[in-house]
UniProtKB/TrEMBL annotation:
This is Phospho-2-dehydro-3-deoxyheptonate aldolase. GO terms for molecular function: 3-deoxy-7-phosphoheptulonate synthase activity. It comes from Suillus fuscotomentosus. The keyword Heme does not apply. The keyword Transferase applies. The lineage of its organism: Eukaryota, Fungi, Dikarya, Basidiomycota, Agaricomycotina. Belongs to the class-I DAHP synthase family. Stereospecific condensation of phosphoenolpyruvate (PEP) and D-erythrose-4-phosphate (E4P) giving rise to 3-deoxy-D-arabino-heptulosonate-7-phosphate (DAHP).
Amino acid sequence: MPYNVTPIPDVDDDQKLQQYIQDRRVIGYDPLVQPALLRHEVQPTAASQLTIAAARYNAARIVAGQDDRILVIVGPCSIHCADQAIEYANLLKSKLASWDNLLIKPRTTVGWKGLINDPDIDGSFKINKGLRVARQLLCDLTDIGVPVGSELLDTISPQYIADLISWGAIGARTTESQLHRELASGVSFPIGFKNGTDGSVNVAIDAMRSASNPHAFMGVTEQGLAAIVKTRGNQDVHVILRGGTKGPNYASEHVRAASKSIEKARPTNHASVMIDCSHGNSQKNHNNQPKVVDVICSQLAVGDKNITGVMIESHINSGRQDVPAEGPSGLKHGVSITDACVDWECTVGMLDRLNEAVKARRNYLVEQGFQRPAGFQRETPPSP
């Protein structure tokens, strides 16, 4: 049936005319809790704050090339169950001591149109509830000593949770967005920009340059008031290679090309590259992620200094699932409802290999007489 354009109402009927020209497609407005109020109601512990501060500092040093560990963002594509997120974080925490060459943060994308927008996964869109659940989850995760990283999907929800995040990402579809570049310029943690969906790294580099400069833009305060936000600019920015429609971009030639472009655009900064093992680099097959990690490890083992981070889509159990007709009660335990993930056992193997590869890189560079940059603080073993 063809679409019929709504005709202009009688110009003498002022009420109908106003309805026609204003909010014609808006159903209604519901009150949204103020960020400051939610922050007051759900506060981080002293242990949480220490976890967040230390993780931000260490992540920034890795991005700056002043710490030779690898920043690993690992976890589900998105969170739909807080209890399972805690379970996964406890699995990570139990292994952290054995991965001393890695700085690990679970990826807890609570900003997706799910946990915050529809926490009950039933189309009820109880956003105020979702914000509380998300904030409480981040408090709980950081309280047990596990810092978190999250993708920033919009410019309002960060006001509710940004104080609990240690690293953030801007996705491939929003890297070109001026709003997200402005947002990134003002957050208090390192930010990674993914290359475009076509695989272009230039859009991510442009985003880095933009976000590292001051901005003034319209935003919302902690009190929920419209305001002009003025930022200093964020120097803790880097590129994320995630592949694209033209194919993967995690091989050594891709890393070298991206690094050279970054050096040209930001000559006084370390050319920091994170590699996303999923999405275009895995060709949307989660079972390919270990293969990507192995290629990364081979690059690290021969001294690549530009690879500073890795992203892995991982969950308790492998694969993905759709929400069944009966709703959340029918979901399988520990299985993603968005992108497919590798399971915990596979994750451990991948991180074990990355940990050894960082150690191999350190030894290789020492043998080559590598001079540590100013501010470098990690101990390096003597050459044999």
